[in-house]
């Protein structure tokens, strides 16, 4: 496993545990202290998502068998982070409803909460719309991040394919060089064989002439 990935993973685990503690304490608070704590948790969630993106990029650059294991682990981290976001929304929604009730109480309209059911329904509908708008914003942001990650992944794949093609091209050049050297060696051997053939022919001719001369002198005697 990559040391860089392990470093990011340690940071994420520490940050995730800290966010859970902060969220638990935020659920026990009221008013501005609760809003401040929720804001801190949301900022921490952004940091956690950034760490997950870094881990994802690092995992995709590793060997296929290692990459598959790490990507499965990252899917679990993303699921845990989505659950944390849902809990943040629930606590923030409860805080928003409480804040709306407090404002009505301060304005001397507390009786409308119990007397006027229509106003209570409108308040509920408004809160629901706000929650839906927040969900849509989060989904849009999630799609944007996934698109960004996909683009980075495609660029990495293209870079790897380019390196593979470059390596194959260098290999072909090496094969061409070896073929050229082999051809030169064969040509040199052929030339030497031709020279040796002429030398052997000349030696044989000289031996035949010498034998003929010797036989001639012996027969003449």
TrEMBL record:
Top-level taxon of origin: Eukaryota
UniProt domain Vesicle transport v-SNARE N-terminal: residue ranges: 1-91
Record-annotated membrane-spanning stretches: 198-217
Main subcellular localisation: membrane
Keyword set includes GTP-binding: no
Keyword Transmembrane carried by entry: yes
Positions in coiled-coil regions: 67-94
PANTHER family tied to this protein: VESICLE TRANSPORT V-SNARE 11-RELATED, VESICLE TRANSPORT V-SNARE PROTEIN VTI1-RELATED
Protein name as it appears in the record: Vesicle transport v-SNARE 11
Species classification: Eukaryota, Viridiplantae, Streptophyta, Embryophyta, Tracheophyta
């Amino acid at each position: 496993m990559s040391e860089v990935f392990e470093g990011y993973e340690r940071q994420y685990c520490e940050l995730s545990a800290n966010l859970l503690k902060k969220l638990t304490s935020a659920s026990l608070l009221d008013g501005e202290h609760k809003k401040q704590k929720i804001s801190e948790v949301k900022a921490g969630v952004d940091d956690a998502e950034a760490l997950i993106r870094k881990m994802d990029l690092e995992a995709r650059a590793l060997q296929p068998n290692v990459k598959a294991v790490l990507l499965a682990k990252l899917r679990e981290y993303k699921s845990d982070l989505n659950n944390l976001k849902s809990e943040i929304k629930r606590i923030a929604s409860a805080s928003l409803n409480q804040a709306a009730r407090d404002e009505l109480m301060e304005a001397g309209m507390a009786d409308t909460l119990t007397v006027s059911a229509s106003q209570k329904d409108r308040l509920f509908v408004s809160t629901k719309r706000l929650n839906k708008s927040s969900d849509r914003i989060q989904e849009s942001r999630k799609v944007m991040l996934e698109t960004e990650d996909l683009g980075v992944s495609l660029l990495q794949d293209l870079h790897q394919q380019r390196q593979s093609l470059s390596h194959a091209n260098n290999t072909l050049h090496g094969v061409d060089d070896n073929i050229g050297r082999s051809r030169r060696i064969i040509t040199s051997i052929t030339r030497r064989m031709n020279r040796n053939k002429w030398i052997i022919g000349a030696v044989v001719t000289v031996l035949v002439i010498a034998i003929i001369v010797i036989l001639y002198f012996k027969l003449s005697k």
